[in-house]
Structures are given as structure tokens and as C-alpha cells.
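Hey, weird one. I pasted the Rhamnulokinase sequence into the form twice and got a warning about non-standard characters only the second time. First submission, copied straight from the form history:
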Amino acid sequence: MTYLAIDFGGGSGRVVAGTITTEGGKKQLTMQLVHRFQNRQVRLGEHVYWDFPALFEDMKTGLRKAAQLGLKVSGIAVDTWGVDFGLIDRNGDLIGNPVCYRDARTQGMADEFFADTDRTAHYSVNGTQVMEINTLFQLLSLKKANSPQLQIADKLLFTPDLFSYFLTGEANTEYTIASTSEMLNATTRDWDWELIDRLQLPRHLFCPIVMPGTVRGKLRKDIAEETGLGEVDVIAVGSHDTASAVAAVPAKDDESPVAFISSGTWSLLGVELDKPILTEEARRAEFTNEGGIGGKITFLQNITGLWFLQRLMAEWKEEGDEQQYDTLLAAAAEAKIKTVIPVDAKEFQNPKSMQAAIRDYCAEHALEVPQSKGATTRVVLQSLAAKYAEATAHLNAMLPTPIQKLHIIGGGSQNKLLNRLTEEALGVPVEAGPVEATAIGNILCQALAKGEVKSVAEMRKIEI
Ligand code: LFR
């Protein structure tokens, strides 16, 4: 059967077709990129938004192209980054464009929240790494601003839920994306109603939770006709991109636990577990218990990742000195600078200039300031590797046995220098790939929903 994965990342989106065939009793997945488009943050007035209507249109172009290619599509599923959401009014209409998690509206919200919330007790329910980008703090900022939008909102839909809602007309929330909100009970895998009531957020905002590997609804007739796709199921997969990516880790049966870095704009470093770890140690180590597919918990740390390089390369391009990835990495490999910066410092979250932010940070902290593009890249990559090593040390202390091997998946796994520095810093073998982990995980989870694949273990054995 053929499935369409619609994978939205912070910088671009893609529609990928995946077909599973069986030859000699062995299943194989063939992937085909159908459509790729840009995604960008738009500053408008006081806020930074995602351009949801344009993204929806881009997605439909992808669906149309798939129909034109003559693909017989059995399922469609959307995955996106975490934490962001749109609000729907009681007529079912979108209230405003979704705001991007990098918007400044959440600044100071975590301190306010924890002024009268016990951190340990809170973590023991949600098990979420506290980050001000999280949905919880976005909602608190709306409350604090007395947002008229919040007052008229009927439903909250996370980004993949929002796309799926406008594809099907069904409003529901997929479990893995809800787990990024800091508002889900990690043990019951349902909403943390106690928290929701305490914050006086209306219960009706929070939709029924559907599990990955189930059908969300049917493609609306008008879209089916407009795109030429006909009747198709819209499927709930690991609609959080990280969950889909982790599902595609090519782990062998004897790897326990499966350890990974999902490497892209963010680096998500962790392991797959059967149950959440909700201890004080996990909280202090800043690990998060996110929902995975097949009943798993992805226990991981959210680390600022190749966002640094994305920003630097964009800035250099604007300055008229566009860099090729390979030459830049070659220069970085040669650079001798030893500087390491804390990659998660606030200064690097959304600076006007990343180059200036790095230089200023080094100057203010008596660190050698990188002078060339190669040296700047070297500083970023070795700082990421150092952070990975620190996170892994914390992680190992919480596991019965330390991790033996690390899979680096996603677009960032193509960065050979970072892979090498990571291997050196962690002292365990690194296996790189697949690059398209998210789309693969998305497609295979659709196959799971359709019964074409029977388990996550089987998914991991499929040849690509
Ligand atoms: C990765 C990711 C991370 C999430 C971040 C922001 O793409 O989904 O898991 O924390 O984006 O939503």
C-alpha cells in the first residue's frame, strides 16, 4: 500500500510517499519525495507566527501532486514540531494564526508558575522538562494577557491536530503531540485535569486523545475532490516529529534500551522506555518523558541543535557570503579553537544575530572568540558534543546499564564532523541514519494502523 507522510519542520515541509512491497517474504519500503516547500516564522505586530493558511495550501499542493503521479493513496498522516497550537471557535473556525514557540510572550511565565507550584510534585505527574516554549506557558501567557482569543476558544488543537482537523473535520488530539504540552499525565497518558482545573482553563479546550496507529477520520469530500485523491483515511501517527523519528531508529532486537539523538533544529537525546521516569533525579537532570509509539515513552533531553548552524548560514548568506555545508565543515574540522559554549543559554534562543550572540558570549565569559566561519562552526559543534556527553552521563546514571550504542537520526545525522565529535565525547559507537527518519516513522505507523505491519519491532526490520 502507499501512504503519504506530511512532515512539517521549522524550516521546511515535505510530502513524502511511501510504498510497502513484499518480495520473497521480506517487506520493503520505497520512499519518494512528492513535494517540498518552505516554512518560515512571520513577525507581525507584537508576535511571531506560523503562516498556517499558506502551509495548508502547500500541503494540498503536495496532495494534488501525489494524485497526479497516479499514486493510489491508502493513508495520510501529518507530523510537526511540538508544543504549538491553534485555537478553534465554537463554529469550528480558526481564531488567528498559530503563534510560534520562539515568540517572546512566554518570557517569565515559568518563574510565575513555579512561584506557587511545587516543582517536584508537578514533575511527578507530567514528567516534562521545563521549557518556556511549552504549551503550558503559552496558555498561561494568554491568560495573563486576558486574551480575547482564549475567551472565545472552544478547542485547542496542536499543530498536527490542526492540519488533521482541517483535512477531516474531526477535532481530536494525538497522544505524542499532547505529551509535549507539559499538561499531560505521563502515567495515565490522559490530560492532567487537576492542573487544568487549578489554572482555571476550560476543560472543553482539551480534545479527546487518540493513540498513534489509529484512524483520525476521512479526508473531507471537498479536499478529496479538489486534490483528486478520492476517499482516504487520515491516520494518527506519532504526530510529534520526534516520536515518528524515534520509531524509525533501525535498532536491533538486542539493543535495550534503544538510544538516540534525533538531530535537526533541535537535538533530542534519549532512550526508549516502557514506563516514565518521574523521579527528582530525572527532573534535576532536565529530562522529559514524551509519548512514543507502540506504548513507549521517549525519555529524552531537548537540546538546542543545528538551529545554530541554520541561523549562522542564513546570516552569512544575507551578508552575501553563502557557505557550502561541506566546505564549512572541512574548515571546522581544521580549526584549533577549544571554546565550548552552553548551547541552551537564553542568549542563543532567538538572537537578532547568532554570530554576534556567540562572539558576545565568548567575550563576556573570557573564552577565546572564534574569528572565522570555520572556527565559529567548530565552536558550535564541539559545544553540542559536550552537551550530549553531559546529558548522556546523567542518562546513564538513571538507567540500569549505560547505553552501549547511539543512533543519530534525522537531517543532522549527515553532519559527519558532529557525528565524529559526538562519538569521541560519548565513547560509544555512533550509527548514523536514516536521514528521513521522521517521514519513515510516519509512514510505517500508518502501515501499523492499516494492519500491513504488525508491530514496532517489525517496523524496525523493514528494508528501506
Ligand atoms: C523537534 C521538536 C522538539 C520540540 C521542538 C519544539 O522538531 O518537535 O521535540 O521540543 O521541536 O516544538
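That's the output from the first submission. The warning seems to come from a hidden character in my clipboard, not from the data itself. The mean pLDDT is 97.
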